[in-house]
Structure formats: structure tokens, C-alpha cells
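Pasting as-is:
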Amino acid sequence: MNGESLQLPIRDYCEAMPTFDHFLILDFEATCDDQAPVEPQEIIEFPGVVLDASGDSVAEFESFVRPVENPRLRPFCTELTSITQDQTDSAPVFVDVLANYERFLATHGLDHRNTLVVTCGDWDLRTMLPKQCRTAGVQTIPVIFTRWLNIKTLYRNVMNLQEGTRVSMPTMLGGLELTLLGHHHRGIDDCRNIGRVLRALIQKGGVPSITGRLSAKRYPPVDITLRTEEQRITVRLETRRLHTLRELARATFRRSPKALHFDSQRIERDDVLTQLMPGSEIEVRF
């Protein structure tokens, strides 16, 4: 379930970034089936393991999540993850789990400036979290979840593997002479195992850095205000793209805008729109 890859070439994967004080290991489990796709797919376990700069574990978070659109787990899903129907039935919904997770991060002083999220593949943050936010009506993705390290890229680099070499968590554990602990495809166990891989790679001289970023078009819809000298109108921006915003402004005011401004600056790139929060104002100039 890794989805379309965002991996950079092995030789170029490290970006010029400050050294991170902590790493947040993240591995979602979601509704699934081996017969037909579950749509919309929803997160059912939201775990996290926090490591310090040397790779030692310092804190953990784990919560099951109650799916709303497809609340009944398929037998395949329970067999794969070991997560039971009773566990999800008694769990909070995604919005509440996300709020609890953000409180956990704040309690430990973790944010996007000092902490890098580490995943096993790009699927968790590139695909699943944006999809879940859209399903749950969450309009803002915490900044810490908008860029990440795909540990497979770091593993290939440290182990001198060719770009594109297929690796999995068991592959990495085996290559580093580590045994699998817990239940594979149980989120918290996978996080702990990924953390052990990261620690081993750091000890071998690996330098964790950002390998993937959430593209503007994948952010969830957001309610914003379009403002002219005469009018202020609340609208929903479905896709964070400048072209979409221009068309929305044109349809709203029935004339084509010459320029769009956010926070006193002219919008010229899609990535500016990732900064929009519910209620943000866009000045429309004709």
C-alpha cells in the first residue's frame, strides 16, 4: 500500500536541513480487504514512537481509531493487523485521535522544526493521511506530517543498494541482522521495528533527512474568504492549486481576476496555498 513513490535518487536524497533532535516513527493501519478495495479507506490505528537523535526510544503513542464510513472490519483486515472489531468499536473517531496526538507531541516539545517523521514507504503521509482528513472533514494537516523520511531510501543509501531495489521492513531487519519483534502489520509493533532499523542505520553512519513532501494538490479542501473592495464571500477551495483558485474567484465574482494575494503577497505558486487555514482571506484584484 505504498502508492506512487516520491523517492528521490539515492545519491541526492539528503536535503540541506538542520539536524533534527528527534524522530517520530509513524505507521498507520487502515481498513482493507483482499477481495475488493475498501472505499473510502480509513485509519484504524494511529501509533507513534519517538526516538532521540541517537535512535533511542523516549516516548510512545498508540490509539485505535473507529472507522465511520465502513465500521465493520473485514476478516482479512483483522487477520493481517491483529486489530479486532471490539478494539475499533470502542475507539475514538479520527478527529479526536488527531487532537490527542497533537497534544502528545506538544507535551514532549515536538514540532516540525525539531522532529522528522519517519515512515516505511510514502503511503502513510502522501496518501493515507490526506485521504483520511478529506473523509473526516479535517481541513488542516499539521505541518509536522507534511514532510518525512522514507526509511527505505536511507536503507538503500547506507547499504549501497541500487536505486529502485525493492525492500520491505522484514528485508531491512534481515539485512541489519535484527529479528522481527511483535506482529507485522500491527502499527505500534511496526513503529518499534522501524525505530530499531533507524537506530542501526544511524550507527552505521546514516544521516536521516527529508525524502518526501506533501504536494499542494493533496491537501484537503479548506473554507476560505475571497475579498474584494466591495465584497467578502466564503467559499470552499477543493484543491490547493493556483489554477483552481483563479477559477473559483472567476466563478464567484463573474470576472477574471488579475491577481490574488494572501498575507499581503501575490500568489504565484501552488505551494503558497498549503499555508491556508480555515477562514484565511484571499484578496482578489481585478
